[in-house]
Structures are given as structure tokens and as C-alpha cells.
Design brief:
With 129 residues, the chain is mainly α. It is 67% helix and 0% strand. It contains seven helices and no strands. Helix 4 packs across helix 7.
Length: 129
């Protein structure tokens, strides 16, 4: 038996053409989505960002944004201050004294006072030591 000649393109060329069309179509979709929605990093959870994107994000954060990210709630900030102060002050005495100045403590949190400066304020201004 003899081989018959094939007319048209070979199966290999056909599959390559299909892949090329698929790739072009997906690239066009990505470009259109980027134009509509912007940078893809904003859509991904922060943990899935690339390392370089995370570094850039942290470098561009203001100190108040860093504070908000580290201490999203007053209770978290308060626990950290209390933990550091209990190294020097008896815990029940500390709780009693802080209860007296609770509005000032909340104001320090709202002003985004760092843990170190809050401890210094408690020691110097409010004489808790």
C-alpha cells in the first residue's frame, strides 16, 4: 500500500496554531482585565503577593499605617503595653493605676503612640514604676 498525500496543514502545525490562538486570546484577556481592574496585587491576599511586592508595600507604608497593621485594636496594644510594664511593676498595682487613667490610655492609642513611648509616658508622667 502506498501512502496518501495529505492536503492542508499537518496535525502538528494545526495544534501549534491552536495553541498560539489560545495564548493570544488569554494575553488579550489579561490586558483587558488589567485595564479594568488595575494591579493584580490588590486582588490577591497579602500572603500571596511576591516578595518584592511585599517589600515595596512595607517601604511605602506610613508609620501610622504600620501601627494600624500591627495593632488593629486597642486591646492588642494595651496587652502589649501591660506585658512590657509588668516586667517592672507588680501586675495588680499596674491594673489599678491604668484603670484610673483609662481615657488617657485610649487617647495614646488613638494618637498611635508606640509601645516604648507609651511606657515612658506611664513612667514619667503618671509615675507608674
Amino acid at each position: 500500500m502506498s501512502k496518501k498525500a495529505t492536503i492542508g496543514i499537518s496535525p502538528k502545525d494545526s495544534s501549534m496554531d491552536k495553541m498560539d490562538r489560545y495564548i493570544k486570546r488569554n494575553e488579550a484577556r489579561e490586558k483587558a482585565r488589567f485595564r479594568r481592574h488595575g494591579n493584580d496585587n490588590k486582588k490577591k491576599p497579602f500572603e500571596e503577593w511576591s516578595l518584592q511586592a511585599k517589600i515595596d508595600h512595607y517601604e511605602n507604608m506610613s508609620p501610622s499605617q504600620k501601627f494600624d497593621r500591627k495593632y488593629p485594636k486597642y486591646s492588642m496594644w494595651y496587652d502589649k503595653v501591660r506585658e512590657k510594664m509588668e516586667e517592672d511593676v507588680y501586675p495588680t498595682f499596674l491594673r489599678d493605676e491604668i484603670a484610673k487613667i483609662k481615657p488617657e490610655m485610649q487617647k495614646m492609642f488613638e494618637d498611635k503612640t508606640s509601645i516604648k513611648s507609651a511606657i515612658n509616658t506611664l513612667k514619667t508622667v503618671y509615675k507608674i514604676y
